[in-house]
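Fig. S4 source data, part A: sequence.
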Amino acid sequence: MTVVWSCLVNEQKELIEWENHQGKAYLENYPQLIDYAQALLASKRDNVHFYYQADQQWFNVSLQRYKQKFTLLTAQQMPLPFELSKRELEILTLLSSGLSNAEISQQLFISERTVAKHVEHLFQKTQIDNRTSLAVFAITENLCCLPTPGDLPQSLLATYEIEELAKGKKLSKKTPHFIHSAISRPITIGVPYVEQGIGQWDTQELCNGSQLAVEMINQQGGIHGRQVRLETVGFRVDDPKSIQQAYQTLFDKEVDAISASYACYSPDLHEWIASKGIPYIHLATHSDLGKSQHRQIKNIFQACASDINYGAGVARFIQAYQYHYPQVVKNKRILVVTVTWQKIDIGIENLIIQLRNAHWYVEVLALEKSSDVFNVLMKQVHHIDPTLIVFASYFAEDILAFYQCFIQNPINAIIYSIYAPSVFLPQEKQCEDVLWASTTGLSMNYAGQKFRQHYQQLFHHQPSYSQASVAYDQIQILANVWRHSTSPRAFREVINGIRSLAYTGVNGTYYFGGEVQAGLTYPDNTKDLSISQPHLLFQIQQGKSTVIAPDVFAESVFRLPHWFRI
């Protein structure tokens, strides 16, 4: 198996991770290679290649100028080509420098006859029959070694210039230009996904959106010539151990960043990820961000606003509903249903205060997991008889199960779901007339339409209304920052880049410059759309999720559900 080590070296001979931590840790044991890498920055060269022996093994070493301030040092462990011996490579290096057999024998302190014999072996091994062609071939194929054999006063080889500079000899500089590097290991993004159980609908969209983003990035040449790839690993939502194992697998594989959905959040998990320092963008709006005395975790970013914003959306709808449909507002009772198998807080306390001032009453029910949980819920729904039912679960499986029970014996109440129906597509005809809200939803602008086209081409069906597109945007955010970073492994620089970025994607604009590094939503957190995503309210009309609020994004207007009896 070929072993490749790589890192970046700057003018101060400081090493920066390139592909992984091991490359930096390994190469810092070879200060002579670090000297050569520093010397390249002071040379007239943009790249140099040579063979280097250390610890009884050979390395094919590449030095390439990167972003003008760095040398990309790559050492690939491998045997010498053409079955060359060490002495033959030394002779080939001197022969390429223009030395005669007699001059080579003086440099190496061997007889001229021995040199001639080695040259004959070189002709046989390379299938080249003259000295000039052999020298040209050696230069073209980088068949030379460092340190340079002997004690040459001068040489035309690029390696000689690098060696002299490494020894402290001053040479004039020239303005370097950017060189794309061909690196075997691509930039890797870890994507934990729901392998089985509840949450699978959304997680498929997560994987699809992520894959589409990677396809688009690689079609455009990758990141500075490096391809991007996904490292996916599965888990179960109801098995914390499997979630931890999934993340440990990604850490073990040394992914360069992690992009995740909402289905794997826990405070302990985020604390653990914080200790790793790896850039992590997630969609867990049910996290504790912005709800308490939150300690800023610099490497963790939440792609959309906290779930406490959902309560503000409920209050806005109630106000509009009461104004436009006073004749069907039978009472001022709201039922908020939450599930104990998932943490979610739509800002209940603030919602209660807001609605109490408008003389509305809010009752909260927390569902416990059982086989007939939704049948039991329906008995409570009929007993309370609310005007609005807020169903607070992110899992599409939950809202569908509740809706199927509700529609068998409905009441005149609006069902207002939090995010969960985002994966329902028109052909499925699921949850007709249900309202649902999302603080990150697929835009109908030009970028959103192009995303739909590309998604259709790759997967042969339309994307969902939120998860696929936000996953796409999360990958594109990382790519945009990497394009301006020293290395994907320069985590501190990447993290600072994400914090300072205002990225406009297919779901709106992402800005993480706030204290808790979470996305902002319009109009809850700000009225400035240049740094926020709209808090969208959809109604499923004829199978299609249609935006009905805010007005500036509306595609249609609210209609009374088909189950209403007036």
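Fig. S4 source data, part B ends here. The mean pLDDT is 91.
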